[in-house]
Hints:
Layout: H1 2-20, H2 43-55, H3 63-79, H4 88-103, H5 109-128, H6 135-156, E1 167-169, E2 179-182, E3 185-188, E4 192-197, H7 200-207, E5 217-223, E6 229-235, E7 239-243, H8 245-250, E8 253-261, H9 266-270, H10 274-288, H11 307-316, E9 327-328, H12 332-340, E10 347-348, E11 360-366, H13 369-390, H14 402-417, H15 430-461, H16 467-476
Antiparallel strand pairs: 1-11, 2-3, 4-5, 4-8, 5-6, 6-7, 8-11, 9-10
Helix pairs in contact: 2-4, 3-4, 3-5, 4-5, 4-6, 5-6, 7-13, 10-11, 12-13, 13-15, 13-16, 14-15
Amino acid sequence: MKRRTLQRVGLAALCTLGLLWLPPCPHDEPPERPDESFAWNANEMFEGLAARFDANEACPDDVQARASALEAEADALGQAAAPPTDTRWDALLQGLFELTADIGRCKDAGPRFLAVRNALWTNAKAASVTWPTDEVGRQTLYRVLYGSRAAAEALLLQLPAEHAPTLNLVDAVPSQTPSVEYEGVRIHSGDLLVSRGGAPTSAFIARGNDYPGNFSHVAVVHVDESGEAKLIEAHIEKGIAVATPDAYFRDKKLRVLVLRMRPDHPVLAADPMMPHRAAQAALADADARHIPYDFEMDFADPQEQFCSEVASTHYADLGVTLWKTLSSFSSTGLANWMAAFGVTHFETHSPSDLEYDPALSVVAEWHSRDTLLDDHLDNAIIDQMLEEAQEGAPLDYSYAKLPLARLAKVYSVVLNAFGKVGPVPEGMSPVVALRATWLADEHAARKAKLKAAVTAFEQERGRLPAYWELVALAAADAP
């Protein structure tokens, strides 16, 4: 009897080991669609600007006059609500790029340049309210906003750290909702904080878009009448959570952007407290139930929610549609990697695209020179990896670790049942967890090489590489 029992135990153990080693089921292939990803195709222009920057040895006498003229032109385009087909938008952006190349030797370059960039940013956002939701309008707004951001950051990275502003106050957007002062910015209930995390997956979320961006996370701000602030956000590890501002900023963030509903929005004009009510609904939903993270990125089903969905769901319930244009992943390589991470909806709400939403105004942004450099390093590596994905490179994982990952998932399910967080997030499969680990490891190895290449570049050229140069360095160091 004892021998038979041992045989049964041994057979059960062998069966268990066999199950742990079973190959995973393949994920569904993403739908085929035309590649609609944006491309600058402007390397020649960027090379000319870099050469122009390198050639300047002093602050030009006409910089202030040029900066004032660009601000005036931005104001004129905004006041006229110039359409996206107006060629003056591109001319204005070109003027900003050229100012970037010339102003870097000026002592007050940072604040002076940001004033011009903020004028362009604010007026383009205001004009875009009347623009059609077609590719022309979308591409113009992206070129102007992303391009002006890229220009500003290219300049800030060339300045000494003590001269690079860490807070950019863009627009004092009025609001009647409860508010609190935090780190030099008055934050109102219903505001949206769009941030960029420091993990490689954060860079992938930011760059993995037909219109590559700079942000990976969205949180909804709630401020009660006593001034107590809370942030409602979705975490991959634990689903919807509520944090204090201090706890929110303790998590590694490379940049944070404050967005607020524009005061002339028709819904806000009828109900000035609407953003506060959206924040109240988000907080009440988080307090009332456990909301798992939505890895499929299905913004139409609020039972599970990813970070953007926390904002879009509760604003939509009160009549405001955020993400006027859906985010999309149309290139084959990007779509394949998204599917490998469990995404099933390839038109959705990505954090980066919220910056371009005409319903929202930009209030302020926090970042530092060091975090901007870290952000750019991470972006360049992910951009290169996505180029390789387009050529057929898979989002890999270690099959040898699959049995351990499956055991970790079983352990995590038990912990989840008791309201705790396990090593494999709720809703994430063991294979996806291994793919995330592979991405982090591969990214770390490439980042070490890229940092060495940047150091050598800086020693040779006397400046940090511009972003397009950083991408070229990442490509040169690719396996």
